Amino acid sequence: xxxxxxxxxxxxxxxxxMGRLQHNAFYMHRALDSNNLKDALRxxxxxxxxxxxxxxxxHKYYELYMRAFDELRKVxxxxxxxxxxxxxxxxxxxxxxxxxxxxxPRLYLLCTVGSVYIKSKEAPTKDVLKDLVExxxxxxxxxxxxxxxxxxxxxxxDKLPDIGSxxxxxxxxxxxxxxxxxxxxTEMNKLWVRMQYQGPTGEKAKRGKERxxxxxxxxxxxxxxxxxxxxxxxxxxxxxxxRILEQVVNCKDELAQHYLMDCIIQVxxxxxxxxxxxxxxxxxxxxxxxxxxxxxxxxxMDRLSNYAVSSTEVLPEFLQAEAFAKLNSAVGxxxxxxxxxxxxxxxxxxxxxxxxxxRIHPDRLDYTDQILGACVQRLSxxxxxxxxxxxxxxxxxxxxxxxxxxxxxxxxxxxxxPRVMDHLDNATxxxxxxxxxxxxxxxxxxxxxxxxxxTLFELIKGLVKETDExxxxxxxxEDFKEEQNSVARLIHMLRTDDAEExxxxxxxxxxxxxxxxxxxxxxxxxxxxxxALKLLRHLRNQDGDVNGQEVSVTQKKIFQLLHxxxxxxxxxxxxxxxxxxxxxxxxxxxxxxxxxxxxxxxTQAFILYEEEMADSKVQVTAIHLIIGTLQRMNVFGIENxxxxxxxxxxxxxxxxxxxxxxxAVYACSHLFWVNEQDGVKDGERVLLCLKxxxxxxxxxxxxxxxxxxxGHVTLFIEMLNKYLYFLEKGNPQITSSxxxxxxxxxxxxxxxxxxTSDPSDNAFFSSTMRYIExxxxxxxxxxxxxxxxxx
Length: 791
Fold this sequence. Notes:
Blueprint: H1 2-33, H2 37-48, H3 58-85, H4 90-96, H5 103-120, H6 125-135, H7 142-156, H8 173-194, H9 204-227, H10 233-251, H11 254-267, H12 270-275, H13 277-283, H14 293-310, H15 315-321, H16 323-337, H17 343-360, H18 365-379, H19 388-405, H20 408-412, H21 417-421, H22 426-442, H23 450-459, H24 461-464, H25 469-474, H26 477-492, H27 499-513, H28 518-542, H29 555-567, H30 575-591, H31 595-612, H32 616-631, H33 638-653, H34 658-668, H35 683-707, H36 713-728, H37 736-751, H38 759-778, H39 781-787
Helix pairs in contact: 1-2, 1-3, 2-5, 3-5, 4-5, 5-6, 5-7, 6-8, 7-8, 7-9, 8-9, 8-10, 9-11, 10-11, 11-14, 13-16, 14-17, 16-17, 17-18, 17-19, 19-22, 22-26, 23-27, 26-28, 27-28, 28-29, 28-30, 29-30, 30-31, 30-32, 31-32, 32-33, 32-34, 33-34, 34-35, 34-36, 35-36, 36-37, 36-38, 38-39
């Protein structure tokens, strides 16, 4: 309730003051209208006496001041008009207003008449301004003095004796304008700082808030200075900046120093900052330890960075000014001076310095590494960073070279880059690793040497190597998959045309991913296997281009590596994935003409099928993959081929469900009839497979009839299509009578009362019959085979 009561009292005080001000303003205007100057000045003094109050906060005082300011503008217009008519002498008015009873109203009126005095040009502008700025020292109350001097600054802003101004009074008058603004700024800053030390200690935070509300009154002076034509580079370097910095350093106030340094950087041109960099930076270590220098210094470096990229013509200026050396030294001095600066602040400074360096000196990798090394030195002796602000800044620091060079290879050439990453905790290391991989993908960067690959995988070890299991368990499954998929995509980006170097890359990647634990292998082994298979194809295509040169990388070496790599999946376990990879390798060995190697990979696939696959659905998929792979192979001799095909047909017939058995067995028929030149064409064994499949289909049909459910007519239609396929391929064992018998059987099953007609079966059968009719009418060699079929 106490704050509410105080606020209500303040509102009442403001309302009362505003009422009295308006009352006196009314009588002042009436006196002005009747040309009664004496009464007008008396009422004006009473009106301005309301600004002597100490009961209002700066925010409320500002409302009262603005109302008085509006009234004073009207008084000024009256004085201008009357002096132009000759009713009054401006000199007499200047003397007359100084007879006001109270000093505050007197000085406001004096400033108002002083503005008219300058406009009249009856006295040198510099003399009037000097008189006014000296007279305002009579008000030492911080709030009243700040607003009075703000009023003086506002009414004189367009009347300063600047170069090109109508009030320019001859040689060196621009110095007078600068001196006036600097003097007013100095006095205002002293009043502003004094506010902090007036009043009870318990209200220090309140006073700090009030001072923040008034800071723009002081800062406007610096803005006025930056707009003066007389403030050229030489004037700024020799006079303006040293005077401002002297005031900033000597005031020893945290709020004032931070705000004014920020103002200097914001209002003056970037070119001036570059040419006076040493002077400006020398002030930073002299500031109070509690000042947030990192924000101000970062702002300066960001401004200079943007200035550098605005035009290529300014880059020589940066080199001439030795900007990097000065900023680097300043950052070090600031960090040394502020021993309590949090590590996040330290890293923020290095991020800004690195951004500046990458824009100004993109070709100087030694500068970039020097900054990273300085950061490592500051982080040394500390545990893994867990502060969120610090880790975000580290990520920004490490991302900057990637964004600039768009090539991870450049970052890999920086010795201190991985040393910075070593200070990240596991979670942040993963985030940074993902950023690195995204950068590689985005820029399509190709890493082509084993050494760089090794360095890269050391960098992204947060994603590749096994870490704390508890953290892995907490990680969302979808996030984990996305992380590992990104690593898999990365492996595909590691390539070179040099076979030996590529083999070294594959070995290097294998070394790292095998440390990733079972969960990761299922994601990282497949891309590595396919990279090795791609190398095999490359070697096979180069066989004719070697010209007798000795090649240390052989196909057998690569197959040995593949075998060892896929074996690692046994720890996952992931038998389905391992089987698919074994089959891929078997097919690759077939293309290379290596029968024993291909046989070994297929043997491993069958072992996995026997020992690891118990689920019936998995078995069905696996046996069809094996059959499909075997069908494409042509490297085997008769004995090995018979062994493998016998295994495939045997496992097909042992599947759990009869329909699955049927489909797998008739798929095996393709193992005995390969259409390629010199391919196997054993019509009898094809027929045996088809007949065996028919028996299985009949058995399935009988089992369904026993249960009273619909029969598997689809199986017979599929069998009919297989018969037609081999008929077209010229298998002499496939007869039209066998096909006709099968068609009759299908029709009987479809029309049977015990069978519920399935529309899809009817459509499938009808389509097959149309196919037969089409070929009967088409003519040609195939048509002759179909003519004997009775539809």
